Amino acid sequence: MLPRADKEARLGQRGVACWLFGLSGSGKSTLALGLERRLFAEGRMVQVLDGDNIRTGLNKDLGFTEEARRENIRRIAEVAKLFVQSGAIVVASFITPRESLRALAREVVGADDFFSVYVKASYAACAARDPKGLYVKAHVGQVGQFTGKDQEFEEPTAPDLVLDTERFDCAASLEKLHAALRPRYAGKQNL
Question: What is the mean pLDDT of each run of 10 residues along the chain (191 residues)?
Fold first, then answer.
């Protein structure tokens, strides 16, 4: 197997997993896709992992119980780790409601390769946005085990970055995210 350093040298970047987490509707996917476009425009190798492309394929067999959520995050982290070891920048966008799940993801990927980003927005703000109509469905009982309503979302104790999407719009949040992540993937020679 080729060494990771050789792959990173070929790509001109360092592999890293940027793990965006927060309530549904907080802006995770919007930021992930915006960051993907920006990194790609820079000539970076980037891969987005999101609930929409993971839950319909790799993890379609999992539900939303505590055990299923743990296995979902474990599998995603294992995939992220493979991409990171190939020198890619991974942008993972998952609710990850528990501190223990975030710790699991960090452990699997590796602390040096993991950049955690709390996309912060209140339940009320997310419900007002409701881009997928999930809050309306949860309110009338059509979605069970809904994070923030039926299952608690634990506030993080020490994320690498907090993006408050109630205070700052998408463009400002994306700028802050890119600036904070850049030293992790660019390396000294590319800054």
Answer: 93 97 92 98 96 80 83 95 98 94 97 97 78 55 53 87 95 97 79 43
Q: Is residue 110 domain-resident?
A: yes
Domain residues for the domain of 124 are 4-185
How far apart, in whole angstroms, are the C-alpha atoms of residue 140 and residue 119? 26
Please state, in angstroms and rounded to a whole number, the distance separating the CA atoms of residues 46 and 23.
24
Terminal CA-CA length for the chain? 29
CATH number, domain containing residue 167: 3.40.50.300
**190 belongs to a structural domain:** no
Check: CB of residue 24 under 8 Å from CB of residue 134.
Answer: yes
Element (H, E) at 168: none
User: At 46, is the secondary structure helix, strand, or coil?
Assistant: strand
Number of domains comprising the chain: 1
Tell me if 191 is assigned to some domain. no
**Does the CA dihedral 129-122-119-97 come out positive or negative?**
negative
Contacts of 175 (CB under 8 A, 6+ apart): none
